[in-house]
Specification:
The complex is a heterodimer. Chain A is an alpha/beta fold. Chain A is built from six helices and eleven strands. Chain A has a domain of 77 residues. In chain A, strand 4 and strand 5 form a beta hairpin. Classes of the chains: A alpha/beta, B mainly alpha. The structure holds adenosine-5'-triphosphate and magnesium ion.
Chain lengths: 269, 270
C-alpha cells in the first residue's frame, strides 16, 4: 500500500473515531501531497475539528492509521505540524514579539527556555522580519489583548511559521473576523503558502472561502444517518474536489466534473 | 430612571462610603459617654482618652517587664508566623497545583489525597499539632499551612486546567517539552492566579494564627488580645483589632498592586 504514492506527505487510511456514545468519523481515506492547499467544509459538529485533533496527535484514532512523511504519526503534537485555532492560539502573558520569539527560544534552549547574547539578537531580528512581513511590527511590544481579532490571527500565523513547520493546520482561523479583514487575511495566507512552500489544511464554514483559497476542497458529511439516533454513525469525506484557479480575478472554480464520491470506497487508500 | 442605572460619581461614592463609618463612630461615642456617665469605672466601651492612653502604653513605651514595645513585638511575632505559613502554602500550592493540573499521572496519584486532607477541619488537628510539634513556633506555622495549603493547591490545579487546551497544543507544536511548557506557558500564567489565591486565603491564615496564639504563645497579636481579655481591657483589645484589620487590609491592597504591577497582561485577558 505504501508504494502507491511514495510522495504523499499525509496519508490517512481507514480512519475511524468514536467517543463512548458518539461516532464522529468513519472510513476516512485521504492522501495529501506536498504543497497542496486543502480546504475542509462540512456541517457544524460533523467532526472537522476532531479530524484535525487526530492529525495533530492530540486525540488518538479508534481505528485506522495516519502517516506523515512516510512515518506513523507519533501520538502527540509535534513541530512538523503547526496550527492556528479560531481562538486562544497566542499566549496572553507574552508580548507580540515574545510570542513569536518563543518558538525559537524553545528550540534552542531546552532547560533555561530563553536565549541570550548574540543568538538572541539574531533571533530577535528574525522575529522582527516576520512581524514586518505580516504587518505587526508597530505592535511588537503590545500584549495580544490589545490587538484586534485580525491582528491576533496574524500573530498566531507568524508564531507558528517562525519555526518552519511543513504542515499548517488552520481550524476556522478567520471565523471570527469581519469580511473586509478576512479578505486581507486570505491574501496573507495565500502569499505565505506560496513563499514558504507549505502544505495547508484549512477548515472553514465559508464555502466560497474554500474555493477561493485552496487547491483542493474536501466535504465532510454523514452518508449513513439513523433518524432515531443521529450519533450512531460518523461523517466521512463525501466530496474531494480539485480547485482550478482563474488567475485573472483570483476566484477559484471547482472542477465539479472531477468530483467523486469517496465515502464508501475503501479502495482509494 | 431605574435604580439599577443610577450610579454615584466618584466624589459621591467617597462620601456615601464614609457615612457608615462615621455613623458607627458616633453611635459608639454616644453609648460610651452614656455608660461612663453612669459608671466612671465602666470598661466595656472605653472613652477616647483611655484609648489614647492604652495606645501610648502599648505602642510607644517599652514594657516594664520585658523592655520591649509590646505592639511592635507582637506585630513582628505574628507577621513572621503569618508570612512563613502563607509562604510555605504558596510554594506548596504552586508546585502541586501545576503538577496536578498538568501531569495526569501526578494528579492521579496526589489529587485524591489533597482532596481528603482539605476536608479535615484544621482546628480539629490543632491538639495533634501541639502534641507533635510542641508549643513553639512550628505548631503555629504548621496550623496555618494546614489550613491554607490544600485550598491553594486545589485552586491552582483548577486554574491550570482552565488554561485553554489550545495553548498547550500550540506549545507542543513549537516543540516544547513538559519542562518548557511549565516554565514558559503554565507557571507565568498561573503566578498572578497564585497571588489571588494567596490573597483570598489570608483571611483563613489570620484566623488560624490568632487561634493558635490564643491557645499557646508568649507573644503575638492574638496572644495579647486573649491575655488582656482577663482584665476586660477593651481599651487594648479594640485598638489591637483595628490594627489587625489595618494590616489585613494593607496586605490585600499590596497583593492587588503586586499583580497589577508585575502582570500587566492579567485581568484584561479574562
Ligand atoms: N471529547 C469528546 N467527547 C465526546 N464527544 C465529542 C468530543 N469531542 C467532540 N465530540 C463530538 O464530536 C462531534 C464533532 O465535533 P467537532 O468539534 O469535530 O465538530 P466540527 O465539525 O469541528 O464542528 P464546528 O464546525 O461546529 O466546529 C460533535 O458532535 C461533538 O459533540
Ligand atoms: Mg470545529
Amino acid at each position: 500500500m505504501m508504494g502507491d504514492h511514495p510522495g504523499a506527505l499525509i496519508r490517512v487510511s481507514q480512519l475511524w473515531k468514536s467517543y463512548p456514545d458518539t461516532a464522529v468519523l468513519e472510513r476516512i481515506n485521504l492522501e495529501v501531497e506536498r504543497n497542496e492547499f486543502v480546504t475542509v467544509v462540512g456541517a457544524s459538529g460533523c467532526g472537522k475539528t476532531t479530524f484535525f485533533k487526530l492529525l495533530l496527535g492530540e486525540e488518538q484514532p479508534t481505528r485506522g492509521t495516519i502517516f506523515v512523511g512516510g512515518k506513523p504519526l507519533s501520538p502527540e503534537p509535534g513541530k512538523d505540524r503547526g496550527v492556528v485555532f479560531q481562538r486562544y492560539s497566542v499566549f496572553p502573558h507574552l508580548t507580540v514579539l515574545e510570542n513569536v520569539l518563543l518558538g525559537l527560544e524553545l528550540r534552542r534552549s531546552k532547560f533555561l527556555c530563553r536565549s541570550f547574547g548574540r543568538r538572541r539578537r539574531e533571533e530577535l531580528e528574525q522575529c522582527e522580519e516576520m512581524l514586518d512581513r505580516v504587518g505587526l511590527l508597530p505592535s511588537a511590544n503590545a500584549y495580544p489583548d490589545a490587538l484586534s481579532g485580525g491582528m491576533q490571527q496574524r500573530l498566531a500565523l507568524s508564531q507558528t511559521l517562525i519555526t518552519g513547520p511543513e504542515i499548517l493546520l488552520l481550524d476556522e482561523p478567520f471565523g471570527a473576523l469581519d469580511p473586509g479583514i478576512r479578505s486581507d487575511m486570505h491574501e496573507l495566507v495565500r502569499e505565505l503558502y506560496r513563499e514558504l512552500k507549505l502544505t495547508v489544511l484549512m477548515i472553514t464554514h465559508d464555502l466560497s472561502e474554500g474555493f477561493r483559497l485552496g487547491t483542493r476542497l474536501l466535504v465532510f458529511d454523514k452518508v449513513r444517518v439513523d433518524p432515531q439516533a443521529p450519533e450512531a454513525y460518523g461523517a466521512t469525506i463525501t466530496y474531494d474536489v480539485p480547485v482550478t484557479r482563474n488567475r485573472n480575478n483570483g476566484n477559484g472554480l471547482a472542477d465539479v466534473s472531477q468530483a467523486r464520491v469517496q465515502g464508501t470506497g475503501a479502495g482509494n487508500a | 430612571m431605574r435604580l439599577i442605572n443610577l450610579r454615584p460619581s466618584r466624589g459621591a461614592a467617597l462620601i456615601v462610603a464614609a457615612l457608615p463609618f462615621a455613623a458607627l463612630i458616633v453611635v459608639y461615642l454616644v453609648f460610651s459617654d452614656l455608660r461612663i456617665e453612669a459608671n466612671p469605672n465602666d470598661k466595656l466601651l472605653p472613652s477616647m482618652e483611655s484609648f489614647a492612653e492604652a495606645i501610648r502604653r502599648m505602642a510607644f513605651e517599652p514594657s516594664v517587664r520585658t523592655g520591649e514595645i509590646l505592639l511592635w513585638a507582637d506585630t513582628a511575632a505574628s507577621l513572621q508566623r503569618l508570612f512563613i505559613g502563607i509562604g510555605v502554602s504558596a510554594l506548596a500550592g504552586f508546585t502541586f497545583g501545576i503538577l496536578n493540573g498538568l501531569i495526569p499521572w501526578f494528579s492521579a496519584t496526589w489529587s485524591p489525597l489533597v482532596r481528603v486532607v482539605s476536608m479535615i477541619p484544621p482546628m480539629a488537628v490543632l491538639p495533634i499539632l501541639f502534641i507533635t510539634f510542641g508549643l513553639g513556633e512550628l505548631a503555629k506555622v504548621v496550623l496555618i499551612v494546614f489550613g491554607t495549603a490544600p485550598f491553594i493547591m486545589r485552586d491552582l490545579e483548577q486554574r491550570v486546567r482552565e488554561l485553554p487546551r489550545e495553548q498547550i497544543v500550540k506549545a507542543q507544536t513549537l516543540d516544547a517539552n513538559t519542562w518548557q511548557i511549565v516554565v514558559r506557558v503554565v507557571a507565568p500564567q498561573v503566578l498572578p492566579r497564585l497571588m489571588d489565591a494567596v490573597r483570598l486565603s489570608l483571611g483563613a491564615a489570620w484566623l488560624f494564627l490568632i487561634a493558635a496564639e490564643a491557645i499557646a504563645s508568649t507573644e503575638g497579636l492574638g496572644y495579647r488580645i486573649f491575655l488582656v481579655r482577663r482584665y476586660l481591657a477593651m481599651d487594648v483589645i479594640l485598638p489591637y483589632v483595628a490594627w489587625i484589620t489595618l494590616l489585613a487590609f494593607l496586605l490585600d491592597v499590596g497583593f492587588r498592586r503586586f499583580n497589577a504591577f508585575f502582570f500587566p497582561w492579567y485581568g484584561t485577558s479574562r
